[in-house]
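Session log. Operator J.P. requested a structure for one protein chain; no other inputs attached. Running the standard single-chain path with C-alpha cell output.
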Amino acid sequence: MEPIFQLLIQILETAYENPPFLLQNTLQLLPGPTLPLDPVTEILFKPSFSLDAATESFLKRFCIKLMEKSKSLFKDFLPSGKFFEPSDNSMESTKSCPSNNISVERVFGQLDAELKRAPHCSLRTVESKLLYKNNKTAEWLKEKKESEKGEIINEAGRNNSKFINFSKLKQKKLHENRLKIIEERKKTKTKREEKKRLTKCKMLKDLETIGIWKNQKIIEENIGKFLN
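Structure written below.
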C-alpha cells in the first residue's frame, strides 16, 4: 500500500483528468470495505452521471488547486521528501515518539492550570516546575548519595544563568518571527484586496463593453471568459 499522501495526489490527478469520477463516487482514498451510509449521507453523496461544461471546468480547477496545496503541505512525505523513505536511524530515533497528541495536550493542560494559579509567574519558571514534576526529579534525587545530590544541585545552579540567557534569546527569536508573520499577513491582505479591486474593475469594464447577460446564449458565450 502506498503512503496516504501519495494516494491523495493520485486521486486528485485522476479526478482532474476524469471529473465525472467525482460525481459517480468511484474514487476511494482508503482501500478496503466502507461503512454503510445513513439516509442523509446517502442522499448527499448520491452518484450523478450528468456533468455540464461549467461543472466540469469547476471540478478541474478545484482538483488542480487542491493538488497544488496538498503537494505544498505534504511535500516532506512525497517522493524526494525527507520523510518519504526514512532511514533506519530515523525509524530508530522516532520509536519513542507518541503516536497521538494526548500527552502533549495533558502538558498544555498542566501549563494552563499553573498559569491560572500563578498568573504573574514567568513561563520559564512554570516550565521548570512542570519538568521537575513530570520527570520525577525529586524521586530521582532521593536515590542519589548526599555528595552526589549536592553536586547536582550546585551544577544546576551554575547552569541557571545559561538557561535564562538561552530562554531570553529564544523568546527574542520567537518575537521576531511573529513580527515577520504579521508583516507577511499584511502584505498578503494588501495583495488580496488589490486583486479583488482589479477583478471588480475588470467585471465592470466587461459589463460596459458586453452589457448585461440577458439570456442563456449570451451567458454561455461569455462565461468562459471569466473561467479563464
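Operator note: The chain has a mean pLDDT of 83.
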